[in-house]
Amino acid sequence: MSRFAVITLTDSAIDRVAEIVASADETALGIRVGVKNGGCAGMEYTVDLVTEADPKDDRVDAGDHAVFIAPQAVLFLLGTQMDFEVTKLRSGFVFNNPNQTSACGCGESVTLVPAAKMPEEA
User: Fold this and answer.
1) C-beta separation of 7 from 62 below 8 A
2) At residue 41, does pLDDT exceed 70?
3) Total domain count for the chain?
4) Looking at residue 94, which CATH number applies to its domain?
5) CA atoms within 13 A on the CB side of 9
6) Rounded mean pLDDT of 8-27?
7) Which of these, 2, 101, 23, 93, lies nearest to 65 by C-alpha position?
8) 121 within domain boundaries
9) What is the pLDDT of residues 54-107, one digit of tens each?
């Protein structure tokens, strides 16, 4: 039985994860994506370097590396596509999240609702 991935990554996001890991001062396994309370819209995405895997995290393969999903973020990120964009004004990860109901004007914080729990597979 294959496990459903919490998020999917575009090729650009996979390439950026590889660049982050390669440029880390310490041995890194990948990045951890989470959410935290903050900002004017209520929640913010977090992205941190992972040097030691936490067995509680969900893991999504990103080429030779991994994106770890913090357990408290899973229901907020379920079905999200993670991309990496470079524009004239900014560069960074972009989360195309079906659980996002609004965002602040500056784009730094979002309003998220938990995804409905998936029925157990028989």
Assistant:
1) no
2) no
3) 1
4) 2.60.300.12
5) 22
6) 93
7) 23
8) no
9) 999 999 998 899 999 999 999 889 999 999 999 898 889 989 988 777 776 655
